[in-house]
Structure formats: structure tokens, C-alpha cells
Amino acid sequence: MKAIILAAGFGTRLRPLTDNTPKPLIQVGGRPLIHYSLLLLRKYGVTDVVINVHYHADKIVEAIGNGRQLGMKIAYSKEPEILGTGGGIKKIFDESSHECSIVINSDIVIEIDLAKLIKFHCGNKGAATLVLRKAEEDDSFGRLEVDREGHIRNILGKLCWKAEVDQGLMFTGLHLVNRAVLDFIPEKQCYSIIDAYIEMLRQNKRLSAYITKDYWNDLGHIDRYHSVDRALKEGQLMLNTI
Q: Domain spanning 2-233: which superfamily?
């Protein structure tokens, strides 16, 4: 299994920390934020990784290198113009022979059994599997709705389908993506993978939901960053990937 880490963003919600440092290199608990995604992948034997880069791209490449120090093989997809989550994924797939990749945001910390996730994805035969969890109370991440068979049916309320009960699920930023998804991403332009998924649902394509209760946090928000950084430094948060 190959992996893609999305690391091209500007990190505007983390300013001033990201004024001169790209978000993936912000120190969290004494190590660069992107290390948490890399170490999770390595734990489950996923060592072939492509990282997309744009903002302070050279700093990321210099800091992370070819992955040898982590026992991994790391390559980079440089975006002269930022392509968004969808465009970035499409560029990497187009330049490879990958049929399926794990895709993970560089600004999340998650503990999850990737082996179980991969097995689930292969067994469900969806074009993509999105890892979901219980939504935060403030609902700032946007909700998704899932039917009784575990198929995603609505994203951000963009479709007509409504669940019988409010499931309160949100996307974690971790997904498994098949090459078939590329048909719904425009060529060489900035485009969101979420918009691609919404269009896929409109055309009745299958998207699978993998619902987890494992630890997760999105450090793209300044308050969350400080909370997790402090918890790791003080030993209140222990991660089994490090």
C-alpha cells in the first residue's frame, strides 16, 4: 500500500506560527507535526510515501528528506500553484501507477489500526473509504450521513438524502482512495476532494464509511495545537506510534 500526505497548505489558522514555518514542520511535543502521520504509516508497514508541497516547500523537503532516517521512502509532489486536496491527490496519482493510496492530512494526530482499515476498504469495494468519528460539539468540521449498510449518503447537507436519526459524524482527514476517484477531479486546477466526493454521491458512486472511536485531533486550529502540544510535553497524552 502506498500513502499520500497532504502538506501543501498555508496554515493560515495557525498564524503567526506559520508565518515563516510550514505547518507540517511546526513542533508538537518536541517533533515536527508531520512526523505523527509518518510514524503511524511506518508502524503498519506503509513506508512508500509521497508528500505534496507548496508553501515553504523547500523547507519541508530539506527537513524530512528522502525518509531514510525514518526507515521510509519519501518522495515529493511539488505544486508551483496550489492544487487543493483534490488536485494534489490527482497530480500524485497521475504521476504514478498506484491503484489505491492511503491519504492523510499532515495536520492531524490519529491513532488507528491501519491494517484493519485497509482490510475494510478492500472488502467493501467502494471507490473510497473515509474514516469518520463523532462530530465535535461546535460542528465546525461539517457533518456526514451514513446509511444502514455503512455507505456515505450525504456530505455537508449537499444532497437530498437524510438519515433517520442525526448521526453526528465528521471526516477525520484520513481516507483510502482508489484511482476511480480521479474521474471526478478536474485537470490541473485547485479543487477540493470533498467536492469530488459530493459529485460522486450525486452519481450514485459508492463511498464507504469507517467509523472509529480512536484518538484523533486536528491541529490546524491554534487552540487545539497548544492543547495537544502541552499534553504531549506534560505526559498527559501518550501515543503508541512514538
A: Spore Coat Polysaccharide Biosynthesis Protein SpsA; Chain A (3.90.550.10)
Predicted local distance difference test score (pLDDT) of residue 14: 87
Give yes or no for a cis peptide into 16 (omega within 30° of 0): yes
pLDDT bin (cut points 50, 70, 90) of residue 125 is confident
- 212 in helix, strand or coil? coil
Which of 171, 219, 224 lies closest to 196, judged by CA?
A: 171
217 and 170 in contact (C-beta within 8 Å)?
no
Amino acid at 235: G
Helix spans in 128-236 (H): 193-202, 222-233
Provide the residue type at 220 as one letter.
G
Helix (H) or strand (E) holding 232: helix 222-233
Domains of the chain, by residue range, sit at 2-233
SS3 218: strand
User: Residues 106-124, buried b or exposed e (16+ Cβ, 10 A)?
Assistant: bbbbbebebeebbebbeeb
Residue type, 57: A
**Maximal C-alpha separation, the chain:** 50
**CB count in 10 Å sphere of residue 97:** 7
List, for residues 88-101, the tens digit of each pLDDT value.
Answer: 999 999 998 889 99
- Let me know: does 114 contact 44? Beta carbons within 8 Å: yes
Query: pTM of the full predicted structure?
Result: 0.93
Question: Is-cis flag, bond preceding 80, omega within 30?
Answer: no
